[in-house]
């Protein structure tokens, strides 16, 4: 891939088209055809370009290039759409068209334009006046243009006889510049009250996210002196309570021009102080950007917000006061940019409007059967965000969701509002959020005192809920759409990663790394070998690596989840229960109260940190591939946290892809193991020791994963101190050649041990090969019998049937062929073979190789018989092992490419006679 940044300049002369797709001929007369769907003209302020080779991995590289480019320009809002469209268009170029792809990103004052060009001269150019065929949704092709039409603000196609270029433009969302909210001037008695002196921490963050300024109020609030924190990243102190993939992170928030919200600052005492922050992006006279953060305690947020607290008595008796209803201010001012901010602002306004102690808001699922906790204030149950409760009435159910309801004392109706259980709230008023008659949520305000609310407060709250319901639903649908687009991009990346490996352990690691921390705080993968096996804990991952061993220890001591094939996520309570027992045991031990009875024995339970890490909601998703449960993917949250439904749906999609990838890895591993076992059976298990003769073999099979190919060797005892040896080459490589290899090696051993001579052995082997019919293959073979002699020499009887001739190296350095060529096997029925006798004197070497050695090539050069002879002449005085190693090094160094043919080297040497 090659990339380049191009300075900003005027927009290139590109076709612009009309509102509906149309075509026009290039006025130059060169036959170019342009297709566009809208007129778009803007000034280009920056460009980034890259080229990608026609290989599959280029698609992922193109996505990364576009993502990095747009995020670098600060266009995070349109990254997901741009990545999806680029992925489709580059796939068409590098995978389907098989050409390189050029990607150009153009930044303008109103959006981003991305162009993807390929080179496919065989493509048919549409005729003038014919519509552009984008294909139907069921067709494999044409989806890229359909996605452009669905997601892009405008798009177009340019054809020439040698290339095609598709471009699309994504507009930037319009956001007001300046303050986000404004409220009317209020009388002094209506201004919010502050408890004592209000301390406002002013913290300045530089371009890199490090603290550059820290005022006295920041020291007082958090306990750090300025010199202790200056230069440290704010992210080291910030405790960010957000769900990954659904809202802005602290690092991203610091880069926004304007932001407000809540998070925590970890103080010098180790405790987290909830703060409400207002971030403002500025730049100094040198143009250096930085972020100024104003922070107050979370309960003093009125200092940084529009005045909120208005006594209920005033709002009910004064028309002027009524105009300062918090919902009036809220609805009349710009809404927060994200759903979470809108919901949080809503519950705060509702709490202050009724002068309550707490408020909460739940959103309904698409089928209106459950409500999901999305925002609360004044409740310890904020940690229960995304917890779900059924809508229908019944014990422990949320029965007041579809109509306004007032509970004067919750102690008289326990379980009426499950969210308030154990919070100390006594009275509550709840009203539904409805859009066009459909239940979209529920809003409630509660107080610690009983009998605080009546039907009058319910009507006021319902009136406010009706005014805000449409805005909430619109924001929810917008968030859902962004999440789904982000999920599509996430699943595309995940599929690429999972398809890129067939290694089981790497697939397990990828499954975990893709879920943590994007979908969950921790995860565990259980695998099932077969139907009769129990689930086995194969992999554990937590976003804090120090907790992995503790979680693994905890899970290993509880029974694994049942391998139920039912699709979808199901809650698994065992980890949280065991974590609770561990925390209880630790507390009792610290108080000297003995040990509680539980599933985990004393002394071996997890630490409190581990117990907290797995104390939240835990869900199990089955890994089903080819109609069989092959494992379970377990996702977990820390204490009292829950999953949102959209995250579980995304996890379910991921689990289906991961299950197929894991099963593919299993099948590949099994087949590889079988193949390797069968291949190893085609080679002799070990070489026998021969008194008076050194023997060394080097074998290399061509092709990745192959242990045996068409070349083979053997050395085996016959009888009476005689040994048979063979080296051969079957025509071709791979499994088909290996099948003939097995036939030849085993037949040689059987026939030789029957006492047959060398020519007789090869003639019968020739008949066996021909009997294979269409599966038969040509075979070159060097076969001989070796007999060590009492005088220290060795006698060899050799038959060379079409094989490269063996070479004899004498002690004086001369090299000569040790046999004569004869016909190869597997060609004709009647063979007349004969054997030759060779005597190896002390110090002599017999070298036998296959043609993969002599036919080693580098361009037009070939090692050949002469080259092999030259190398062998340098081996005088070397052992058989050293001779074989030197020959192999010479072959490997002769060419830079990996060998394309099997190679076998058999070296036999008679040691010299040592004289005293």
UniProtKB/TrEMBL annotation:
SMART domains: GAF (SM00065), PAS (SM00091), PP2C_SIG (SM00331). It comes from the Bacteria. One of its GO terms (biological process) is regulation of DNA-templated transcription. Keywords: Hydrolase. It comes from Streptomyces regalis. This is PAS domain-containing protein. CDD domains: HATPase_RsbW-like (cd16936), PAS (cd00130). The keyword Membrane does not apply. Residues 23-34 have a biased composition (Basic and acidic residues). The lineage of its organism: Bacteria, Bacillati, Actinomycetota, Actinomycetes, Kitasatosporales. NCBIfam families: sensory_box. PANTHER family: STAGE II SPORULATION PROTEIN E, STAGE II SPORULATION PROTEIN E-RELATED. Residues 1-34 are annotated as: Disordered. GO terms for molecular function: phosphatase activity. InterPro entries: Bact_Sigma-Reg, GAF, GAF-like_dom_sf, HATPase_C_sf, HATPase_dom, PAS, PAS-like_dom_sf, PAS_fold. Pfam families: GAF, GAF_3, HATPase_c_2, PAS, SpoIIE. Residues 202-232 form the PAS domain.
């Amino acid at each position: 891939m090659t990339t380049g940044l191009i300075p900003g300049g005027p927009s290139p002369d590109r076709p612009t088209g009309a509102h509906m797709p149309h075509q026009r001929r290039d006025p130059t007369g060169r036959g170019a055809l342009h297709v566009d769907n809208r007129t778009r003209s803007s000034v280009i302020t920056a460009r980034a370009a890259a080229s990608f080779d026609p290989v599959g991995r280029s698609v992922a590289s193109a996505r990364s290039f576009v993502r990095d480019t747009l995020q670098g320009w600060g266009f995070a809002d349109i990254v997901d759409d741009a990545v999806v469209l680029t992925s489709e268009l580059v796939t068409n170029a590098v995978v389907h068209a098989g050409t390189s792809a050029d990607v150009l990103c153009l930044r303008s004052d109103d959006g981003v334009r991305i162009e993807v060009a390929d080179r496919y001269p065989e493509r048919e150019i549409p005729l003038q006046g014919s519509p552009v065929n984008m294909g139907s949704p069921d067709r494999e092709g044409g989806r890229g243009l359909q996605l452009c039409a669905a997601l892009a603000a405008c798009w177009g196609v340019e054809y020439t006889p040698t290339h095609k270029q598709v471009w699309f433009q994504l507009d930037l969302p319009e956001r007001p510049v300046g303050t986000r909210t404004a409220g009317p001037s209020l009388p002094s008695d209506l201004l919010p009250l502050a408890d004592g002196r209000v301390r406002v921490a002013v913290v300045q963050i530089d371009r890199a996210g490090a603290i550059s300024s820290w005022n006295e109020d920041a020291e007082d609030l958090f306990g750090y002196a300025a010199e202790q924190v200056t230069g440290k990243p704010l992210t080291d102190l910030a405790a960010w309570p957000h769900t990954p993939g659904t809202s802005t992170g602290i690092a991203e928030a610091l880069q926004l021009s304007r932001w407000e919200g809540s998070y925590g600052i970890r103080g010098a005492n180790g405790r987290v102080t909830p703060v409400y922050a207002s971030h403002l992006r500025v730049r100094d006279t040198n143009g250096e950007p930085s972020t100024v953060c104003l922070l107050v305690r979370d309960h003093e947020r009125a200092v940084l917000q529009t005045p909120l607290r208005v006594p209920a008595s005033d709002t009910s008796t004064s028309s002027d006061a009524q105009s300062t209803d918090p919902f009036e201010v809220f609805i009349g001012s710009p809404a927060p940019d994200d759903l979470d901010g809108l919901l949080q602002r809503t519950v705060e306004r509702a709490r202050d409007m009724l002068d309550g102690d707490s408020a909460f808001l739940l959103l309904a699922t698409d089928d209106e059967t459950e409500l999901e906790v999305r925002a609360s204030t004044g409740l310890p149950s904020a940690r229960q965000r995304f917890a779900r409760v059924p809508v229908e009435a019944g014990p422990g159910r949320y029965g007041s969701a579809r109509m306004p309801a007032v509970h004067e004392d919750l102690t008289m109706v326990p379980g009426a509002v499950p969210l308030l259980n154990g919070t100390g709230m006594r009275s509550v008023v709840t009203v539904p959020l409805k859009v066009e008659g459909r239940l979209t949520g529920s809003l409630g305000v509660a107080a610690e005192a009983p009998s605080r609310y009546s039907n009058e407060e319910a009507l006021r709250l319902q009136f406010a809920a009706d005014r805000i319901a449409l805005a909430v639903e619109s924001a929810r649908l917008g968030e859902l759409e962004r999440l789904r687009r982000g999920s599509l991009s996430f699943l595309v990346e995940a599929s690429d990663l999972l398809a890129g490996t067939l290694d089981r352990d790497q697939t397990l690691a990828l499954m975990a790394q893709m879920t943590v921390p994007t979908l969950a705080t921790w995860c565990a993968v259980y695998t099932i070998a077969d139907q009769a096996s129990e689930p086995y804990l194969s992999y554990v991952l937590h976003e804090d690596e120090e907790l992995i061993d503790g979680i693994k220890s905890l899970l290993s001591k509880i029974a694994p989840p049942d391998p139920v094939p039912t699709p979808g996520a199901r809650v698994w309570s065992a980890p949280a229960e065991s974590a609770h027992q561990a925390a209880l045991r630790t507390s009792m031990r610290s108080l000297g109260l003995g040990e509680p009875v539980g599933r985990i024995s004393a002394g071996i339970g997890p630490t409190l940190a581990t117990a907290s890490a797995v104390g939240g909601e835990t869900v199990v998703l089955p890994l089903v591939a080819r109609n069989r449960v092959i494992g379970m993917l377990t996702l977990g949250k820390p204490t009292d946290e829950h999953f949102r439904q959209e995250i579980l749906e995304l996890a379910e999609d991921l689990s289906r892809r991961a299950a197929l990838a894991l099963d593919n890895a299993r099948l590949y591993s099994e087949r590889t193991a079988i193949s390797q076992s069968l291949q190893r059976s085609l080679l002799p298990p070990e070489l026998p020791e021969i008194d008076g003769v050194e023997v060394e073999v080097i074998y290399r099979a061509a092709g990745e994963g192959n242990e045996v190919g068409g070349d083979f060797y053997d050395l085996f005892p016959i009888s009476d101190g005689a040994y048979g040896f063979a080296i051969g080459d079957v025509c071709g490589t791979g499994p088909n050649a290996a099948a003939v290899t097995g036939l030849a090696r085993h037949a040689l051993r059987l026939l030789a041990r029957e006492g047959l001579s060398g020519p007789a052995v090869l003639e019968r082997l020739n008949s066996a090969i021909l009997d294979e019919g269409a599966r038969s293959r040509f075979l070159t073979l060097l076969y001989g019998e070796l007999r060590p002699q009492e005088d220290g020499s060795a006698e060899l009887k050799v038959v060379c049937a079409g094989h490269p001739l063996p070479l004899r190296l004498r002690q004086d350095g001369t090299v000569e062929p040790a046999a004569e060529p004869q016909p190869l096997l597997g060609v004709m029925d009647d063979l007349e073979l004969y054997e030759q006798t060779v005597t190896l004197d002390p110090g002599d070497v017999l070298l036998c190789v296959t043609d993969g050695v002599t036919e080693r090539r580098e361009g037009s050069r070939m090692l050949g018989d002469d080259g092999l002879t030259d190398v062998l002449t340098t081996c005088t005085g070397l052992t058989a092992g050293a001779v074989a190693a030197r020959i192999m090094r010479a072959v490997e160094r002769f060419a830079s490419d990996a060998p394309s043919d099997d190679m076998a080297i058999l070296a036999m040497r008679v040691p010299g006679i040592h004289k005293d």
